[in-house]
Design brief:
The chain is α+β, with helices and mostly antiparallel strands. Helix content is 35%, strand content 10%.
Length: 103
């Protein structure tokens, strides 16, 4: 599947109401490591599990007064519209969000 088709598939799943673990956000290194570990152990290559555990939304989440869109995350590759976090490696839209967002 090409990246645009995969991005559309993800958008369809999110807009159809896939329940993801949006909260709690990963605010500390320990929380990030716990979520990354779950992605490694539980998700593997399972797209739905990646989206659920990663807490993906098809809109920006505002956490503690700070918007957390993919486009401002350190893992976001602007020109590819891609999340480069090794445990995710997914095409995303700039306004989407996940709970592993980092400045």
């Amino acid at each position: 599947m090409d990246m645009d088709a995969l991005r559309r598939s993800i958008a369809d799943r999110l807009s159809a109401g896939l329940k993801t673990e949006v909260w709690p956000r990963a605010g500390t290194s320990e929380e990030v490591n716990a979520i990354v570990n779950r992605l490694q152990v539980e998700a593997g290559e399972d797209l739905d599990k990646k989206l659920v555990i990663g807490g993906f939304t098809d809109h920006t989440i505002d956490a503690e007064g700070m918007p957390q869109p993919c486009e401002t995350c350190m893992y976001y590759k602007v020109h590819a519209r891609f999340c480069d976090l090794p445990e995710l490696m997914l095409p995303v839209e700039p306004e989407w969000s996940c709970r592993l967002w980092r400045i």
